[in-house]
Amino acid sequence: MHSARLLIGLGVTSLLCLSAATARAEVTLGDLRASNGVSPPRTDLFVDGDTLVLSASASSREGVLRVEAELEGATVELAAVGGGSYQGTFDISDVAPGRHDLTIRAYDRLGDASTVERTLHKHPPPILWLSSPRSQRVIAGNTPLDARCIATEPYECRVLCMNVRSATRSETVCRTRDASTRPGTLYLLARPSRAFAAGEVLTVTLTGDVGVGTEIQPSVVSPIYVETSPKLVAVQAAPGVILDFDATRILFIHEGYQIGIVDRATREVAWISAMLPDPAGSVPSYGALTPSGAVIQSATGRIFVWRDGVWRKIAHGRLDAVNGDRLVWTMNNDRWGYVHSIPEGTNSSIWNRPDSSSPFQADLSASGDVYWGTYDEPWIRHLGVRRLGSHPGNLQRPITDGTNVAGRWWDGDTSSSYLYTAEGEEVFLGDSISGNSAGLLLHAGYAGFLKSDGAVNQVWLRTPDGEQHQLSSFATSSLFDQQRLRVGHDGISDDGEVLFLNGGKRYIGRPGAEPEEISSDLGHGRWFDGSFHVTLGDTLFRVASKGGAAAGFAARSEALRDDLAEVDGLQRFVSMPMDLEAEAPALALHHLEPDALPSLSDEEPSADLAGDELGEDLPAGVGCSAAGAAGSRGGAAAFAAALAGLALARRGRRRSAG
């Protein structure tokens, strides 16, 4: 009997449980591990050698009659070994390297059966890996890209190709193994033939050839952001896309749809929970930090709250506004609106119009005042206090900074903006040619607003003493740098500087001065703690404006280049442009004003206020850990575990050879 080395198994936290709808037998497939104990969170099984030892556990209320497994037409009955566990052995010496279907069936004493199907790889399949940069990273336009094809016997990476695409061009480079190439991993370090421009978004696709009649799945890494501004200083990075930040924390979502929070002082990561993937074409999931935790809007129409270590779904609906430990949300049909208290876990109804087809839009002040509006009424409602304004057209989202309140009424051609002061005065700010609520900013008594010059929208500022200043004079329309859950709140400094976008660039406008160019329009800009900041992908930047310098991107690129040069076996190549028409279009992001109402997936119908597909009141970390999430797409954790398996395989072969 050949010795078996089962390289990658399934951990206790990743057990798979399937049962037929009419069956009483229930199969839980687990304990698929060898002596090395490698156990990444993925469903495929890997074996290196000529013997497969398969373990499973099975249970049934009627009693388990037998458990069997089938591989390549051969069936083996798994013997009971106690404690509900079963084990069997396959001789796979005649099974070809590659992917194979494995089926496990359990039968109860009434003849009902349950089946689990898995994919078995004889020898770990090759891996195509973009070592650097990773998805959601921010790079300079000429940063080298480090790609690798990793394989173990009997596979050998023969060819590795890398295609880099932006909205403007595509470049491809390949490396072919020859007699001078070192055995093992095939490396490819490539630099663009010319630098990509700031504001471009890159998609990198890796392909390869290993022979032995097997195919390697292409690896696609996207998005990668290009930014070169000397006025952006990298402050901190997160393990995923940054959703929100404050003085001590960063809220992010990992590519495996794991939600986490980084402690900015210690850099420790608290993994909160895993979510269902965003449906194709939906608005990505978003969220905000709260004093006691975080709140998340999933693209599948669920609202989650994390507080005191507990992850809980509070509703199927749309999260509309958050401030402190209170939030406003509405059912997906916008006919019911609620204020939710996170500490108390209660919902208070503030809007109930079953026959309405109007969107519901609201804002919250830090003191808890709620302002909202709908198309059914011509005024802004201040919950329990008063009504503000009465104008023709559809009322867009009202905005408050706790002192002033502002709103826009859209008549189909023009948005008319009005400000309501703490003294009760109504101030007409102006008309703009824009039909959504993202044309207003309020902070510290200042008001930023868009105003048409007859052809395009320009940026204006109203000061606390009532003065108005035009801040832009571009030939094309400007717009504010807005983000969901923060619409109207992020773009004004304590001194009345205004952040805005025009022509693919980000500017700061000041009364009596020309707008200062800060960066490309990628990401989101925000005033916080005495400075403007920009979040882009997984990185938080501070804006060093008014001539301030950032050591920034050139130095970071050089450091990356130095690190790569130390990697054994790397060789440098320069890629050549290729025909754009021969490739599918690359990912292109267009920075537009966010709609007042996010388009959430309609996969799930509206439901009750309570309930959670993962269970009520789950403790933090259920379904996830620092190593990965159950049900995630694998991501870095799966790759790390696969690398561990490959390393163990090599060490095992060296020991056997010795």
UniProtKB/TrEMBL annotation:
Keywords: Signal. The keyword Signal applies. Residues 1-25 form the signal peptide. It comes from the Bacteria. This is Secreted protein.
